[in-house]
Design brief:
The protein is an all-alpha fold. The protein is about 70% helix and about 0% strand. The protein starts with a helix and ends with a helix.
Amino acid sequence: MDLAYINAVKIFLPATLAFLIGIGITPLFSHYFYKWRLWRRHGRSQSLPAINHIEEIANDSIETETPRVGGMIVWIAVFLTIGLIFVIYIIFPNSITSKLEFLSRNQTFVPIATLFIGALMGLADDLLQVFPPKKLVGDPIFVRYVKVLLISILAFIVGSWFYYKLGMTSIHVPFDGTLYLGILIIPFFIIVTLGVFSTSIVDGIDGLSGGLLATVFASFAGITFFNNQIDLAAFCSVIIGALLSFLWFNIPPARFYMGETGMMALTLTISTIAFLTDSVLLLPIIAFPLFITSLIAIIQMVSKTFFGKKVFTVALLHHQFELRGWSKAKVTMRYWIVALVSATVGMVLAILG
């Protein structure tokens, strides 16, 4: 059988399986999400100021009465797909199933591990929001700092793995060569991870986060395919399929939100794949909507913390557009368009550079 044909099947078949598995398991999980009332008891938006019609927008986006652990659908569908393909290979070992199986030490073990660790850490955070101790009611600001700290710790662990276990000491500079960082690659990995952690704050409009993340992983699927990292391309495609199944139920009116169990997992995985594909310097282009959202949120946080002033009326970029009169659907669709264009440009630059 032609190798190109096998590679195509290896990439598209897992994506299809992940989508079907995600669609199949969602009714069961959704039933228990609502049965156990897995949503915020108090909306984050309560901390937003009542200026002009901001309060109206905030109240419209309160995350109560909508489950916030929908990211479980994504990573469970991913792991079930990986497990199913691996079991088929074990039961029916032959040249075809061995080529379709994509668990590999040098390509997919690290991103799978980061996805798993991030998912569990995020799930713990979600449960604290669902069943909050008295001190955590209303999502106080110190909780957000703790969340950033946890992401930094996870990024430190993964960055250390890259440096000490994989011997990664440099990054590729598109069209220019290599930049040697040595041990500084660890703090650099932390900075990159925090840069895409805006996925934590683009989950406030139905359909927004799922579409953005699927576009980013699609870009990496293309990059890994052209890099001949076929196992990693298959892994990216599995995540895309799982995200599409999540998006099927997340479009207005959303049946559930991604939650931190999806956000932390996918944030860490994006950074990991960017380093594995040597395209980390292009990540601000590939994931432009995520980076610009993070930048605005960081500027707002620093300004409020050290100067006691706000730079922006609302820190969340998508709410800025709502204040201009854009509907939620318009915000989401235009975010998707920008994400698609930037991800395509970033993919082309990565392939050419």
